[in-house]
């Protein structure tokens, strides 16, 4: 009985914590405005990138900038984060 409870608790914890790993940079809704293709492989030109950034809500901008400043979180999004840094971050 005790081992069963431990296993169930571990499973529940892994399910809950898995959601917390997805951040602002992993959300297709947040990232899509910055890319020209649906596969999000080609970023928009700098002027369009800046326009997409400027039209984004401040709370989303802050979350994205925070993740770009975290080396582990930003690594898969290095090119995107470099573009944000070039813009000077949030306005």
UniProtKB/TrEMBL annotation:
Keyword Signal (UniProt): yes
Signal sequence annotation: 1-22
Record keywords, A-Z: Signal
Protein's UniProt name: Uncharacterized protein
